[in-house]
Structure prediction request, 343 residues.
Amino acid sequence: MPLTGSFCWMNAVSYFASKFAIPKTSSFMDTITIAIHGGAGTILKEDMTPQLEEAYLAGLTDAVNAGYAVLEEGGNAVNAVKAALVILEDNILFNAGRGSVFTKKGVQEMDAAIMDGNTLEAGAVAGVRNVRNPIELAMEVMRNSNHVFLSGKGANDFAIKQGVKLEADEYFFSQFRYDQWKALRDSDNYSLDHTHQQLEELMRDKKFGTVGAVACDNQGNVAAATSTGGMTNKKYGRIGDSPVIGCGTYANNATCAISCTGHGEMFIRSVAAYDVSCLMEYKGLSLQDAMNIVVNEKLVQLNGEGGMIGVDANGNHVMIFNSAGMYRAAKNNKDLFEVAIYK
Prediction:
């Protein structure tokens, strides 16, 4: 007797689903990995005091441990990168969240993005104000908005609707950021670095202020997240590469997860994060080789200074930069634990 009705339809669906579905592994990955960055630039050991170096290393250690703890407990890569960035956004040393620099108008406007390499879902925000953790808002955009990218007042309205934590302007104020802005506010210049009057006595640090994280979980899923306060004295609502999917942030289980830090305009023009993925997908390059070409060849040709971190679905990681230094850390379950600043 032939099959009819809903039973026949269900069998047909099952047949086509099994024939064309993307295969999923049922086994756990051997390697779980997370890597983070806190910005790149002219960061020289001779300019660093022991106290400031210790503070940066401690901040990086706290963040990489927070992200790794999620992976170690069986959590997914998306939650791991978010956890790491929340720690960095709360640390005033880094130009993201609480440590964000001042714009031309004397306020903080923050950008962030997150991407899930398993589903290719992504969420991003730009020009948001008073949001304690912009990466939390980017996650809400990805999960609950039916959109990818929200900006300005609309993004803030969505933050209120979703119950994302806000803070008063005073929370984001730091004297050394303010002094840095005062030196530029009456000019048309902007600053890509963290140089300021108070810390100049401790360290002449020119760095691109962005934080980011990439991770591979025990299912072989990868994710990337990036957050920034942008440029000191930026105007016209300037947005850099950090929240732009494919430029400063990208993740795809088939290739890699990438988070960038550097002169955003050059990373946008070169579509840097996605270019790494393309080199892996279409030319069959390894993560190391693809990132090396983008950072040390393509970006250099554009006078693009900075770096990026990446992982692939096998848990391999790379942290690469063409500047003097990059605040960075990585950890996996194969006894890797690295926290570094200089070349």
Residues 1-26, 193-205 have pLDDT under 50 and may be disordered. The radius of gyration is 21 Å. The first strand starts at residue 33 and ends at 42.
